[in-house]
Amino acid sequence: MGGFELLARDGLARIGRFPTPHGVIETPALLPVVHPDPARQPVAPTELRRRFGLKAVITSSYIIWRTPPLAAIAEERGVHGLLGFDGPVMTDSGAFQQHAYGHVEVTDSQILAFQGRIGTDIATVLDVFVEPDAPRDVAEAGVRETSRRATQARAGRAGLLAVPVQGGLDPDLRRQSAAAASSTGDVLAVGGVVPLMERYRFADLARVLIAARPALAPEGVVHLFGTGHPMTFAFAALFGVDLFDSSAYLKFARRGTLMFPEGSVSIDGIQENICRCALCEHVPLTEVRDLPPPERETRIAEHNLLVCSEEVGRIRQAIRDGTMWELAERRSTGHPALAAGMRAAIRGVRVFLPTEPESRRAFRTTVVTSGLRPAVIRFLARLDVFKSGRGPYKPIPFVPLTTAALRSIPAATIDGVPLFWEILRPVGLVPLELSDVYPVGCYLAPEEFDPPPRTGDLASALEGLPVDREQDWSEAWTRRQVEALLAWRYGPDLASALLAVGVVGFRSHRTGRLRRIERDGTILFHLGSEGIVRPTFEGGRALRAHLPAPANRIVVAPDAVPFVREGRSLFSRFVSGGDRTLVPGASALLVDESDVLLAVGRLVLAPGEMGRMPRGVAVEVTAHERGERAPEVEDEAPSPAATL
User: Fold this and answer.
1) Domain boundaries, the chain
2) For the residues 582-586, what does the mean pLDDT come to?
């Protein structure tokens, strides 16, 4: 099996390294389809690497096999020698030709053996292409036969193997096929979807991915066959697709069509130089339009490749920045069918939740459905639990949780009932003490710039309340916010236990925001701009004392215990268990198998991925007994504590 290593992620979308015999593929990656006949390939494979930064390609082993002159060269020099390309080469097996023409002359065992003889880096099983709208019995037979062939192929091939995932639009069959492919394949290739993309059925494509994604092994590289247009790349990456392949760059060029992330444009209608990329700056599109057909086709193909390559770079940057949802939403505005696909993705939000990060740097809305992203859905579900047994709440105008603002808002008890306040944010009414928590605290929406008419002010909200209007309530609010944030993250019992031992909240002098929670001068928790409490090593000790195992823990295998205790990252293969409710970005206690605290860290992988990924970091250590990574906060000297 392969050795995929995850390096960075934003939910399901991920950056990784996939080693092959001819080099590492850095994902997400575009594999342009290269015709094995040089006369039919206007952009040489060597140029794909040198000029466009595309370091891996895909070609058809079936076309090579059925063309004796090409087959002879490939068997003598290998597929790399045939193509004149020294990077990773993936070969398809003829399933698309089977879809297009109704049959192929080769058997699955013959084409697999041929791929081995020509030295492909990633061989593909000849699957049974299941049409999207195939009857259930036909789709089931196709899945069964594809799985049989994959099992046989795995037994006969030691190298990397791509196993297609079939099943049409039947979600159960897609799940079954994904699970079977995961047991045999290194590359898990979601197939049978080209007709969906050709007909702009992106909502159905989303449903296919929603059905298959949970059953796809995290250690496998996910490939979506036929993801040829750059406007679809972000949509696919959102579901964790690692590899795209494209023949569209050339097919579109042959009919004079330019590709952009926002859609397609016929060059015959170009009257202005709408692109200033390096290619189009050298030869403007208005001049390319009038070139002789062969030269025009080549120039358009090169433009399309450059646009595709740039879009993959944008996706990689968005993953690093935590803005994949924003990018996918912006791309969905390019076509109503893609917008429908994004809405279908939102309806399948459960698929995203296990890997949805605990927080991001920002939350910016881009379309009307931005407020239904997984981060918001999870927040609202937790909010229902948090508010249960509390209240009633009284709405007040929005106020930031700063010391100055909180002096005048009563945090009182009236007739034995605590007085709770909530503010209207774009996600709805939110308790004031949670207004800094992600995604609320960093939520940027049109309402920030075009607020609705004010329905009242703080004075009217306080009207008639039997409280002292002159009292300074800031210390009481600090107590309440500390309690709320601990309860939000760890539950009310833990919050009560820590309150009972006298924890203290500190605010920033500069911003007035809560930044630390201490006990007897020892920092237990930091708070950054995300509004989430992050334990120090001493905070980890307090959590371990009050939270029963396995809550908030990741269990370290014995071989890694000395390294984690010294502050080194915990690698995936050394995880032996833990709390399955944790998500990437969450802080957790790293303990040995006897529940001895070793360190505190932030998750890179979801618990369900740990132990399965053969390479890479599962948890980055942020604090251990002899050291601690500085928190990312804009703080300075502490303000006077509010004793609890």
Assistant:
1) 380-461+468-474, 494-628
2) 98
